[in-house]
Write a structure and sequence with these properties.
Elements (H helix, E strand, L loop, with lengths): L1 H18 L2 H13 L1 H22 L4 E9 L6 E4 L1 H16 L11 E4 L5 E13 L1 H68 L6 H34 L12 H4 L12 H11 L1 H25 L2 E13 L7 E10 L7 H67 L5 H36 L3
Antiparallel strand pairs: 1-4, 2-3, 4-5, 5-6
Length: 454
């Protein structure tokens, strides 16, 4: 293991240079700007910001203009014979005193209970002096906004990795097609060579049929490889939210590199620590935990302390819109204290505590998952690097062997079967090398996704 890590340290600068693909970085930025999922997350963030503004608005006084006008017809009436009761008495008093001091023409009361032609035009002011629900609801909304922003970073990180992996797979498919093209050219040359040998009576016709059959099999492989390349390109364009047939620029620094050296100098323990401190999933849970703790405090304070408020009304009230002698003003101060609500507050406190415990448990589980992911990604990356080095040596050996077999076949010293086997070995070794080369990049991208903050 020490030798492996030393090898990675030595080769790290070369790999870092290979990783800095300007073409790919531009595509990543394009994908981050155009992706519909990220656009949805941005809208969710804007929505959360509006929730914060709404919560903050509760700290300010509320001023409202509330005019009402009533017109009534029919309905119950208030009948009171005040005239019948008082007029005779006042008449007697006037006779006893010899004056007209007391009125004797008082009419009986006959009024509608519902007021008609009555208005109440007022301005209402309310201000909360102390209300724990206002304060802690605002803090909850701020924590939820931070959690939403962390969630967006999670989506960005995942999208970045998907774009990188799709690009590497597309380049991988292009190189596979080139390898098959090269093999097709070799087999075409073999067919021509065998026809000349048959014409010169140095070989029988079966070598021509056999070589043509091998060439036809390669045509089918090439068709399948080209189809895979088109599918890989369409998927890459899909991630960038553009037309599936859009042209894709090829980074020559990647596709023309025979061997891509790899890195991984950080020890596994350091990578685990880096993942625990950098992963946005954990930050999202931490912010949700803050919101849950604020919810607990909110319910506890709301259960033990009253809400205090002041307010008032000022305006005009009376029959007809004359505004003359109709002005009035009312000032109010009060509190609201829920003494007993059927243990509702107690249940809400317990519910908030359960939510906090649930999130803490989820955080512990996610931390363990991240540790496992880091371990697996690290060793996958190490194995991919070893495989790449092994296949690189295999290509060289297979190419040298084929060179010898090709020379001997042209001199008639090797059977066609051995020639075809040597050629297939070269083709297989080169395909394996291509797969291994881009597999290293894909595994490194996975390791970065797990351990590196985007």
């Amino acid at each position: 293991m020490i030798n492996k890590i030393f090898l990675y340290i030595v080769l790290l600068p070369v790999f870092a240079q290979a990783q800095k693909s300007g073409v790919l970085e531009n595509y990543v930025e394009e994908g981050l700007q155009n992706n519909l999922s990220l656009h949805q997350e941005s809208l969710e963030i804007k929505k959360s910001m509006e929730s914060i503004r709404q919560a903050k608005a509760l700290f300010y006084p509320r001023l409202s203009f509330n005019p009402t006008y009533s017109y009534a017809a029919g309905g119950r009436r208030l009948n009171f014979p005040v005239g019948d009761l008082l007029n005779p008495a006042y008449k007697s008093l006037n006779e006893l005193t010899g004056t007209n001091q007391f009125p004797t023409n008082i009419e009986n009361v006959n009024e509608l209970l519902a007021p008609t032609n009555f208005h109440d035009t007022k301005v209402n002011v309310q201000y909360s002096i102390y209300n724990p629900e206002v304060k802690y609801n605002y803090l909850i909304q701020k924590s939820l906004l931070s959690a939403q922003e962390a969630k967006k970073r999670v989506v960005e990180n995942e999208l970045r990795h998907n774009i990188e992996a799709a690009y590497y797979q597309y380049l991988q498919s292009l190189e596979a097609v080139k390898i098959l093209d090269n093999s097709s050219a070799i087999l075409s040359e073999l067919v021509k060579l065998n026809k000349k040998r048959v014409a010169n009576n140095t070989a029988t016709k079966d070598v021509v049929f056999s070589s043509e059959y091998e060439a036809s099999k390669l045509v089918q492989q090439k068709i399948e490889a080209e189809n895979n390349s088109r599918v890989a390109g369409a998927y890459f364009n899909f991630l960038l939210n553009r037309d599936l047939g859009h042209d894709i620029l090829v980074d020559s620094t990647l596709i023309h590199t025979e061997t891509i050296n790899f890195g991984g100098a950080d020890e596994l323990a350091g990578l685990k620590q880096k993942a625990r401190t950098g992963r946005s999933e954990l930050k999202q849970i931490d912010m949700s935990l803050d919101a849950a703790r604020h919810a607990i405090t909110l319910q506890q304070k709301a259960a033990s302390l009253p809400a205090l408020f002041i307010g008032g009304n000022a305006g005009f009230q009376g029959y007809g819109y004359t505004f003359k002698n109709q002005a009035y003003m009312v000032m109010q101060a009060g509190l609201q204290w829920d003494i007993f609500k059927g243990y509702e507050r107690k249940s809400k406190i317990q519910q908030a505590k359960i939510q906090a415990d649930l999130l803490q448990t989820k955080k512990t589980d996610v931390e363990k998952q991240i540790e496992l992911q880091t371990t697996q990604a690290y060793y996958d990356f190490v194995s991919a690097g070893e495989a790449q080095r092994s296949f690189g040596e295999g290509v060289q050996n297979a190419a040298q062997y084929f060179k010898v077999v090709d020379s001997r076949y042209r001199n008639g010293n090797v059977l066609l079967m051995e020639y075809i086997k040597a050629q297939n070995d070269v083709q297989t070794a080169r395909l394996q090398q291509v797969i291994a080369k881009y597999n290293v990049l894909i595994k490194k991208s996975i390791l970065d996704k797990i351990t590196v903050e985007p």
